[in-house]
Amino acid sequence: MSHADHVREYAVRMYIDPARKAGQKSVQIRCGDVHSALKYTNRHPLVCAALGAMKFRRDQSLELVGTAGPMQSPTLVYTFRLL
Question: Residues in the chain with pLDDT < 50?
Answer without folding.
Answer: none
